């Protein structure tokens, strides 16, 4: 694979296997993805770092999805001032997210870092994988530090029994997001204790992701440096981006899913209904006549679905 194929410009993720198959790795550049989240939500610097890390982390999780209709949702619920974040990633490399309080401001840590852990607080991290089965897969762990990378690594180890090292970073300056990205390395079941010790040693003194991105190193360069394996094997790089798939039709389905009783009450309002998507801030307006027509002609299957939901 030539260098341009391994290191394309723009946001992307790249997967690799190394150390004779004992290690699987993934690295991401998500600068524009996080910048888009900042633009949509008007995030403060610490909000940008927190949501940006979670968006990037969800792109690791979605890399394992098999079918086009699968999705993964990651919820962080903490007692800090951010008040919780939700991120949804799809297998095509798109991701979207929302945070309850986007404009949290906290003093930097003694080391001069944005205090993501303080903004998130203590709480839980929940991963919900919708794999098209009757029930979604749900895994939950307590937050370790609220710094996101450590929390996700703990989730992989505790919930998926996969030893994982993970780095995430978002560098914010006055003009916006300078750099964002991350790496993940997992030990395959055949990896011995020697590989685990070797990896721990490699990660210990490894520079921060955003510093590496600042040096104009792409995701594959970062894995080259981290693993130092000349026989590392890369898969094709995949673009990643911030995208919300909401639409008027989806909003109609959501309204119908509220159930007949609630919809009838909403239809009484001569002003109609205004809905706002939490992930992209797009606004949808339904006039009273339109709400009434939803009531009169629920979408096929809508009625029974609404009953189940009620
Ligand atoms: Zn939306």
Descriptive overview:
With 310 residues, the protein is α+β, with helices and mostly antiparallel strands. It has 2 domains: 7-242, Hsp33 domain, CATH 3.55.30.10; 248-305, Alpha-Beta Complex (CBS domain Like), CATH 3.90.1280.10. Helices cover 36% and strands 27% of the residues. The chain has 12 helices and 14 strands. It has helices at residues 3-6, 31-41, 45-62, 116-120, 149-159, 193-204, 209-214, 219-227, 248-257, 260-267, 288-296, 302-309; strands at residues 12-18, 23-29, 71-78, 85-89, 94-99, 123-130, 137-142, 164-173, 176-187, 233-234, 238-239, 241-242, 273-276, 283-286. Strands 1, 2, 8, 9, 10 and 11 form a 6-stranded antiparallel beta sheet that branches. A 6-stranded mixed beta sheet has the order 7-6-3-4-5-12, covered by helices on one side. A hairpin with a 6-residue loop joins strand 6 (123-130) and strand 7. Helix 2 (31-41) crosses helix 3. It starts with a helix and ends with a helix. Residues 301-310 have low confidence and may be disordered. Bound molecules: zinc ion. Zinc ion is lined by residues 244, 246, 277, 279-280, 282.
């Amino acid at each position: 694979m030539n260098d341009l194929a391994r290191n394309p410009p723009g946001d992307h993720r790249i997967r690799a296997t190394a150390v004779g198959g004992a290690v699987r790795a993934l690295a991401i550049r998500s600068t524009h993805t996080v910048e888009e989240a900042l633009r949509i939500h008007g995030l403060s610097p610490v909000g940008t770092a927190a949501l940006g890390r979670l968006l990037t982390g969800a792109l690791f999780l979605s890399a394992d999805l098999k079918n086009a209709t699968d999705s993964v949702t990651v919820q962080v619920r903490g007692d800090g001032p951010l008040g919780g974040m939700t991120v949804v990633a799809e297998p095509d490399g798109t991701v979207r997210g929302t945070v309850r309080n986007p404009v949290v401001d906290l003093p930097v840590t003694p080391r001069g870092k944005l205090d993501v852990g303080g903004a998130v607080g203590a709480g839980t991290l929940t991963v919900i994988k919708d794999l098209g089965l009757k029930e979604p897969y749900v895994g939950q762990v307590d937050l370790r530090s609220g710094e996101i990378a450590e929390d996700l690594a703990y989730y992989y180890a505790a919930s998926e029994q996969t030893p994982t090292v993970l780095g995430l970073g978002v560098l914010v300056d006055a003009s916006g997001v300078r750099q964002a990205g991350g790496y993940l390395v997992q030990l395959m079941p055949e990896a011995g204790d020697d590989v685990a010790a070797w990896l721990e040693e490699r990660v210990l003194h490894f520079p921060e992701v955003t510093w590496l991105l600042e040096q104009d190193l792409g995701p594959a360069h970062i894995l080259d440096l981290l693993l130092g394996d000349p026989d590392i094997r890369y898969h094709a790089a995949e673009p990643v981006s911030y995208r919300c798939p909401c639409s008027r039709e989806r909003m109609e389905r959501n309204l119908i899913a509220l159930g007949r009783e609630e919809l009838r009450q909403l239809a009484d309002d001569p002003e109609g209904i205004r809905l706002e998507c939490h992930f992209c801030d797009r606004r949808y307006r339904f006039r009273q006549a339109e709400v009434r027509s939803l009531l009169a002609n629920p979408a096929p299957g809508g009625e029974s679905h609404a009953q189940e939901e009620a």
